[in-house]
Amino acid sequence: MKPLVTLLSAMILSAFFLVACNEPDGRVKNLQSTVDSLRHQLKGLYKPGMGELMSSIQLHHSKLWFAGENTNWPLAEYNESLIQSAFKKIQLYHGDQSEAKAAFMILPAMDSISNAIREKDKQLFERSFHLMTSTCNNCHAATSHAFNVITIPEIPPVTDQDFRVAVKQMVTNK
Fold it and tell me: Is this structure's pTM higher than 0.90?
């Protein structure tokens, strides 16, 4: 009988601890409530401006060009994804503005770039990149920003990035 009582006691204690561990106490509930409240408050605090998002697109436009010219397709894909992300943020934060409403015209050009990268086709990439750049300028003209002319980059936008493929990673310990 004693082994049965011990086993039963162990099972009851195990069940108690299992329930107790899974049930947050009041402090945890209060902390979670505070975290949720702060998240809600922070949601509306930072809203990137249209200029910030367009500057990001311009930087990645240039990086995309040098990645494609060096047939560094993973880097090209990465920069293309950052451009796509910036356009989504434009829709999210500025969807009611005429500039955001006109930005849809970039979609076919972005699809063409994505396809060229996926196919790893440098000639198709170059044609698609020219189409994308032209589309940017057409959108600028359609939204009264024709003074903002985008061109095919001639020099890399940053001097601390190598756009070639298979560059050995160097680690410096200082």
Answer: no
